Amino acid sequence: MNAKTPLYAGAALALVIAAGVGFGAARLTQSGGSAESDAVEAAGGPAPDHVDISDAGIRLSQIAIASAASGELDAAIPASATVEATPDAEAVLTARAPGTITRIFKRIGDPVRAGETIALVESRDASSIAADQSAAAARVTLASRQMERERKLLDQGVSPRADYETAQAALAVARADAMRASAAADAARISRDGRSVIVSSPVSGRLTVASANLGQFVAAQTELFRVADPRSLQITASVPAAEAARIRAGDRVELLPGEGRTIEGRVRSFTGVVDPQSRAVTVIVEAGHATGLAPGQLLQARIFASVGAVRGGVIVPQDAVQTTGARTVVFVRTPKGFKAQAVQVGSRSGGLVSIVSGLSAGTRIATGNAFLLKAELEKETAE
Question: CzcB-like barrel-sandwich hybrid domain location, by residue (predicted)?
Answer without folding.
Answer: 91-229
